[in-house]
C-alpha cells in the first residue's frame, strides 16, 4: 500500500522549476487576500451602506473583472504573459491602498471597478504562463499547484484578515496592496524577463477552430461555468454576511470558516487530482463537483446555526470545488494552441468575472425579497441545472467523436 508520504511525492513530482516559482509568487500575492472576503461586511458595518448597495459594490468588482479579463486575454496573445503580470500586480497593489481611503458609495464603486480591471488582467496572463511552463502530461497538476498556492494564501489571508478586521478594516487594504507589490518584485527576481523564449507560431491547429468565440462547445461550456460560478461566488459575498447577521458568528469565526476552504484544498487537492487525472473525462468530475457545491448551500437552510454546521457545509462546498475547478482548467486548455491560449484564458476568466457581477447583485435582491433561505434554495437548484448541463455536454462530445 502506498504511504501518504509517497502519495504526496508522486503528486508533486515532475513539475518544472518555473511552475514552482509561479506558485510562490501566487502564494505571496494571495496571502494578502483580505479585502474581498470582508468587503460586503465592511460596506455594511463600517461604511453604513445598505445590503443592496454592498451588492452593487461587489458587482462593480465583477464588472471591472470582465473588462480586465477581456483586455488581458487580448494583450497576452499580442505581447506575451510576462509584462502583463508585472503591470497587473503593481497597479493592483497601489489601487488597493487608494481604495482603503474611499468612503462614499460613488468613490468606493469607482475604485472597486478600476482595481478589479487591473487585478483581473493578471489572470489570463498567469494562465498562459502556467501552460507555457508545463507539459501535456502535467498541465492539470500545474494548474492545481497554482490553485494550491491561491488557496493556501487564501486560508492565511482570510484567517489573518478576520483578526485584523476585528480591530481595523483599514489595515486589510494595506496588507492586500503590499502583498501585490511584493509578488511583482518576486516575479521579477525569480523569473527574469530575459528567460522568456518567444513561442514559435504553431500553424497546426489543435482544435477545429482558431478562435474561442467560434468554438460552439466551448461557448456552451462557458455558459455553464457562469451558472455555477454565480452560485460559488456566494461563498465570498453573501455567505459571510449570512454568518454574521443570521448565525451571529463573529469575524474571527467567519475568517476560520473561510480559511478552512483553503486549507482543505492545500492538503487534499493535489493528491486527489493525481489519483483522478486521466481516469474519466473532465466533464464527469465537473458535474459531480457542481452537485456537491449545491448540496453545501442547501445545507445552510436545514442545519442549526452553529460553527459545526458551518464546517459541514464548507466541507461539501470545498470538495465540490476540488472536483470541478481543476478539471475546468484542464478542459479549456486542451482546446487551445500557442496562438489563441490568451483568448481562451480571457474568455474563461470573463465567465468567472461575469458571475462575480451577477452573484452579489442577484444574491442581494433575493435576500431583500425572500431572505437568505430563498437564496440558498435557488443556489442549490442552479447548481443542479448546471451539473445536468455539463453531463449533456459530455454526451454531445462523446457522440460526435
UniProtKB/TrEMBL annotation:
The chain crosses the membrane at residues 19-42, 54-73, 79-99, 148-167, 217-236, 256-273, 285-304, 310-333, 345-368, 374-394. Coiled coil: none annotated. Gene3D superfamilies: MFS general substrate transporter like domains (1.20.1250.20). One of its GO terms (cellular component) is plasma membrane. Its main location: membrane. One of its GO terms (molecular function) is transmembrane transporter activity. Keywords: Cell membrane, Membrane, Transmembrane, Transmembrane helix, Transport. This is Predicted arabinose efflux permease, MFS family. It comes from Mucilaginibacter mallensis.
